[in-house]
Amino acid sequence: MICPVCNAEIQETPFKEWLFNDYSVSRYKCQECGYSFNVYSKEGKESYTIPKRKI
Questions:
Q1: Which long-range contacts (CB under 8 A, 24 or more apart) does 34-43 make?
Q2: Do residues 49 and 37 touch, judged by C-beta distance below 8 A?
Q3: Are 51 and 32 in contact (CB under 8 A)?
Q4: Residue 8: band (very low, low, confident or very high) from pLDDT cuts 50, 70, 90
Q5: Residues 6-31: what's their mean pLDDT?
Q6: Other C-beta atoms within 10 Å of 55: how many?
Q7: Would you call 36 helix, strand, or coil by DSSP?
Q8: Which of 1, 2, 8, 53 is the most exposed place for a label (fewest CB within 10 A)?
Q9: Domain map (residue ranges) of the chain
Q10: Three-state secondary structure string covering 2-30
Q11: 23-29 and 36-41 beta bridge pairing
């Protein structure tokens, strides 16, 4: 897994997982920059990431 913000490689498992409609969502946190981001995946579709805003 690659962080969409700083492009660091993340080698840990997601710290939260849930279902959203037909999508399986996994949340990761980057150890380098501290950003959290969600990865949405659906069978037969390409997965995509959405960075969360850092406050």
A1: 35/3, 35/5, 35/6, 37/3, 37/4, 37/5, 39/1, 39/14
A2: yes
A3: no
A4: very high
A5: 90
A6: 3
A7: strand
A8: 53
A9: 1-55
A10: ECCCCCCECCCCCCEEEEECCEEEEEEEC
A11: antiparallel
